[in-house]
């Protein structure tokens, strides 16, 4: 297990800034997911940690050692790519053993490590088959096995499930998390899929346009997104954002939406233009609600439904029970759960400081 520290990490390709002044501490034994859309800088950050890219400026520390300028092979880190870099003419056993043979590890130790990894990954029955004819899922397990046998300081994974179908990807999310728990190793995992991140991560790092926007446990990221972008990117459906009337003064405990008063947690900041942010499960259909609208769609999702409500302030999505849908055209009132209401500076897109915030108790719906 290793601690990885990034200090003011910056990467520029000609005139394009891929990663901008990023500082992050990845705790020993943590499963940390770098999450964001294509081009956000997550893979470049991972490659710099691995030593496959050198930063333009900044520092990378692993267990207190400055590795910023060290080559990849000098960092004792295992990298698992999206496209499995296996040798199709070799057996599974030889593919897994390959890095150990290059390091001149004794044969008996190689055999023991390969057998241990194969048992963990449940691929003992295919050890003597060639990888060229294996399914995508089995090849992914072989790639993981080749990383495991090295017993590295940390595992770095660049969208390793990206080529798998949806059902198998969900299964492998559980398998990867179980494998991480068994090994206890530090893992840094890159994905653009929020479902993968929420299912596996101890901590999620959300990036966009080369910037680190927020880092923290999944529950914190979901319930208290630090920016409008994070609120839109995390959650399905995403957080609702509604413009309030006028500005916000420090000490305010209510705002106005289209002329109607809405209670909010006490503000400790002021802003000229403000957005009210709230998750769909914290909006209620309420005939006396302060915001009026009309249902335009009803999305049935099995365990629940999502009502799409058109209001004077834009579309609001409301999560309701599986039997609580309403037909299109139904007039409704909307009310908002006060303690789950957040306020954002409309200009910067950043969360405004407010009253003390706590993550909902286990079992409260959060998408």
Automatic annotation (TrEMBL):
The keyword Nucleotide-binding belongs to this UniProt entry's keyword annotation: yes
Residue span(s) of domain ABC transporter: 4-234
Pfam family, one: ABC_tran
GO molecular function, one term: ATP binding
Alphabetized InterPro entries for the sequence: AAA+_ATPase (IPR003593), ABC_transporter-like_ATP-bd (IPR003439), ABC_transporter-like_CS (IPR017871), ABC_transpr_MalK-like (IPR015855), ABC_transpr_MalK/UgpC-like (IPR047641), Mo/tungstate-bd_C_term_dom (IPR008995), NA-bd_OB-fold (IPR012340), P-loop_NTPase (IPR027417)
Keyword Nucleus set for record: no
Keywords: ATP-binding, Cell inner membrane, Cell membrane, Membrane, Nucleotide-binding, Translocase, Transport
Superkingdom of this protein's organism: Bacteria
SMART domains with a match to the protein in the record: AAA
Cross-referenced PANTHER family: MALTODEXTRIN IMPORT ATP-BINDING PROTEIN MSMX, TREHALOSE IMPORT ATP-BINDING PROTEIN SUGC
Protein name in UniProt: ABC transporter ATP-binding protein
